[in-house]
Amino acid sequence: MAQAKSTNWRNVITVISIMILVGAELFGVAISAGWAIAGLFELGNIVGFVLMGLFSLLAGYFLVNLWRRCIAVEPLAE
User: Fold this and answer.
1) pLDDT per position as a tens digit, 13-28
2) Which is deepest, 4, 35, 44, 75, by most CB within 10 Å?
């Protein structure tokens, strides 16, 4: 029978803290970049919102990759 793994709470808190910090930065940059590019080239509100959405999807992709790398380095269960 497989032995139950215990949760390493120190790693869980570390990974969650990193994800919150980096996620806030990534989504802040994504939204501000979409707004700035749309404003700089006078593209209008709709294009600005589309750019914000596209950049947010890109930020989400980077956040998922960061999650996978963090889990590889800091296992949540022992």
Assistant:
1) 999 999 999 999 999 9
2) 35
